[in-house]
Design goal:
193 residues, mainly beta, 1 helix, 13 strands
Length: 193
């Protein structure tokens, strides 16, 4: 038998992480065995087989750092007895980037194959998914922001085709400091559709 341990100077190395056990009344008792894969100095992937008596799941987490931003994606793919013959899963992602002229780009992605999956597997306990992309710029006396949102209800009684799922938001705010009057004056414009 052999045991290999990283030295104290090594910050990141491929290998197994600490396993965990989860017990669920719906799924039984399961074991997670995460394996960390170093893909370079600025990106990595963690694959986690998630083994229950009634399901086989592979979780993943991908992270990458860029010179001007970062992204993180978490997801899972499942074959289980809850919906035999179908593949279930989810994908959540987020990122933020610094653009030219002090603009920032932020995004969040949340999607799933079915309404029950995130709650059954303990990934997400809210009743809706929210994906968005935002471009903004904040300066000392000025804020400019534009966002596009997509909402998806996970409630059993809701029909997403009947709900406002795509929303556009815009905001502009400017501060003025009139010397003759003193104090601060703010102008704010908002658009919502």
């Amino acid at each position: 038998p052999r045991l290999r341990l990283p030295g104290p100077q090594l910050e990141r190395a491929s290998g197994f992480l600490v396993p965990s056990i989860r017990s669920s009344s719906q799924l039984g008792t399961g074991l997670k065995m995460p394996y960390f894969i170093k893909l370079g100095d600025h990106r990595d992937l963690t694959l986690t087989p998630y083994l229950f008596s009634v399901t086989r799941t592979l979780e993943l987490r991908y992270r990458q750092a860029f010179r001007r931003g970062r992204i993180i994606f978490n997801g899972a793919i499942t074959r289980d007895d809850q919906q035999p013959g179908s593949i279930r899963g989810y994908l959540f992602g987020e990122g933020d980037f610094n653009l030219n002229r002090d603009y920032k780009l932020d995004f969040d992605i949340e999607t799933t194959t079915d309404r029950a999956y995130p709650n059954e597997y303990g990934y997400f306990f809210q009743d809706r998914l929210e994906s968005q992309i935002t471009v903004s710029r904040a300066k000392r006396d000025q804020l400019l922001r534009g966002s596009l949102y997509n909402f998806e209800s996970l409630r059993d009684g809701d029909i997403n085709d009947n709900l406002p799922t795509v929303v556009i938001d815009g905001e502009y705010e400017r501060r003025f400091f009139p010397k003759a009057l003193g104090g601060e004056f703010r102008l704010r414009l908002e658009a919502h559709a």
